[in-house]
TrEMBL record:
This is Spermine oxidase isoform X1. It comes from Huso huso. Its cofactor is FAD. The lineage of its organism: Eukaryota, Metazoa, Chordata, Craniata, Vertebrata. Keywords: FAD, Flavoprotein. Gene3D superfamilies: 3.90.660.10, FAD/NAD(P)-binding domain (3.50.50.60). InterPro entries: Amino_oxidase, FAD/NAD-bd_sf, Flavin_monoamine_oxidase. Pfam families: Amino_oxidase. Residues 19-491 form the Amine oxidase domain. Signal peptide: none annotated.
Length: 507
């Protein structure tokens, strides 16, 4: 544990108790910082991690579900250290093009089950195209194109293009990729920026154990003393650049945090871990003075998508024992280019929102529960519907596509991240025409900017969260690493000011 300067205790406020905020707090506390306060607007910590038990004693994840990758992944390493990974044989993955199996049943709109060989051929081709994009192996002509445009052109030039069934499965692949990228459409997503995201080795779907993601949160929460975390504390305004007389570490506190309930906290440093979606809605009034132009531009230009889950609990399993999920292949799906283009400028798509659902997968430790995935504007629209209505639509889809006798569900549960006023979506994506590295680095830059002010106290307002990580945006390990990153800025700031053994400053 580091020894703090004897000159005083810096006051540090962290806004948001998601994994980024908790990682920052735990890092600071473990390095000897004792005046740390975490403000959480919701009535629980965790942010976009939300482990629940709505269907009995086993967990359902309304938010983050898996640990993506093993090598160099601090979340995976933490889960390993504390024995929190799923036991062998209890994991269930989401059906995506890169990991389909013979247990994934694909049904056409006409009620025909598609041959697994054909589905595998199309999904394998799609996965190879995505690998080329991630590995930066694309022709320069695609640099400024959308991911959807790139995929369509490559498919059109392939031997698969002559098959109508292959075209339909390829649309399912694009619809599935929308969920992974958290975008409304791949025609709005930049293919030229995809290579910046780094996929870690060791599998994309590493599952946590019976305690869910909450067990990982508990590791951080147990490291914090009582009173450090304050829930139901939404922040109204962060005033920075102050030069008033409130005395703290080496003089006046440069930052004041105003809470919605009227409480005020003086601080030397504030780490903001609010989601990009929340910043997009509130940044213009949340900071005084207003954020620098380049930071406001980054908040505005980066995308923050909606990904929603629909859980259907049935009295008993109605699908075959060798079936891990039911995937829906439309005659004309929303990721067909002509369908997408025709939907622009009108709201007719709202009547067909359900066509964005990729399918229904099994859920770990819940043998009688299916989970549907939906993304984009359709997910946002769905969140405004009654659960009963959504359940009825989903059952109608299952009956019409499979021809099976599908009972009415006992219960329906939906995630509602877009409707949550303190989150406003799922995770970050890179829209077409956006320079991802430039905007994400601008978003992560602490205030005051070094280029603007060399007199004011440094590191007054710092920014963390998955949106601020160029390589690991969208992930829990990305969020965690940014929390640690900002804590380390503060730790290093005070370490540099400690006397060295010869009595001089360390820096």
């Amino acid at each position: 544990m580091a020894t703090l300067p004897v000159l005083g205790e810096p006051r540090i406020v962290i806004v948001g108790a998601g994994i980024s905020g908790l990682a920052a707090a735990a890092s600071l506390v473990s390095n000897g910082f004792r005046n740390v306060t975490v403000l959480e607007a919701m009535d629980r910590p965790g942010g976009r991690i939300h482990t629940t038990k709505p269907f009995g004693t086993n967990v359902i994840e309304l938010g983050a579900n898996w640990i993506h990758g093993q090598e160099g992944n601090p979340i995976y390493q933490l889960a390993m250290e504390y024995g929190l990974l799923a036991e062998e044989g209890t994991s269930i993955t989401m059906c995506v093009p890169s990991s389909i199996t013979r247990q994934d049943y694909f049904f056409s709109q006409s009620g025909k089950q598609l041959p697994p060989e054909q589905v595998e051929q199309v999904c394998c081709f799609f996965s190879k195209l995505m690998s080329k994009a991630f590995d930066q192996e694309l022709d320069v002509k695609y640099d400024l194109r959308s991911l959807g445009s790139y995929l369509d052109e490559e498919f059109k030039a392939s031997d698969l293009a002559s098959s109508e069934d292959a075209r339909k499965v390829f649309e399912w692949c694009k619809r599935s990729e929308c969920t992974d990228e958290a975008c409304s459409s791949l025609y709005e997503f930049s293919v030229g920026q995809l290579w910046l995201y780094t996929a870690l080795e060791g599998g994309f779907f590493n599952s946590v154990g019976s305690g869910g993601y909450q067990a990982l949160l508990d590791v951080f929460l147990k490291s914090l003393s009582p009173g450090v975390l304050l829930c139901n504390k939404p922040v109204k305004c962060i005033q920075w650049g102050l030069s008033e007389t409130s005395i703290s570490f080496q003089g006046a506190c440069p930052v004041r945090v105003l809470c919605e309930d009227g409480q005020q906290l003086e601080a030397d440093h504030v780490i903001v871990t609010a989601s990009l979606g929340y910043l997009q809605d509130n940044s213009s009034t949340m900071f005084k003075p207003v954020l620098p132009e380049e930071k406001m531009r980054a908040i505005e230009r980066l995308g923050f998508g909606v990904v929603s889950k629909i859980f259907l609990e049935f009295e008993k399993r109605f699908w075959p024992q060798d079936c891990a999920g039911i995937q829906l292949v439309w005659e004309e799906g929303p990721e067909d280019r002509k369908v997408y283009k025709s939907s622009l400028g009108d709201e007719g798509w709202k009547d067909k929102w359900y066509k964005k659902i990729c399918g229904f997968d099994m859920v770990a430790r819940h043998p009688n529960v299916l989970c549907g995935w939906i993304t984009g504007r359709e997910a946002e629209h769905m969140e405004g519907l009654e659960e009963k209505t959504v359940g009825e639509v989903c059952v109608r889809l299952l009956r019409s596509f499979t021809g099976w006798e599908v009972p009415d569900p006992l219960r329906v549960l939906m995630s509602q991240w877009r409707q949550n006023p303190y989150v406003r979506g799922a995770y970050t994506y890179i829209p077409l025409g956006v320079d991802a590295m430039r905007e994400q680095e601008a978003l992560a830059e602490p205030l005051p900017l070094e280029s603007c002010d060399s007199i004011s106290k440094p590191l007054q307002v710092l920014f963390a969260g998955e949106a601020t990580h160029v390589q690991f945006y969208t992930t829990t390990h990305g969020a965690y690493l940014t929390g640690v990153r900002e804590a380390q800025r503060i730790i290093q700031h005070y370490s540099d000011r400690l006397p060295s053994p010869n009595g001089e400053r360390a820096s």
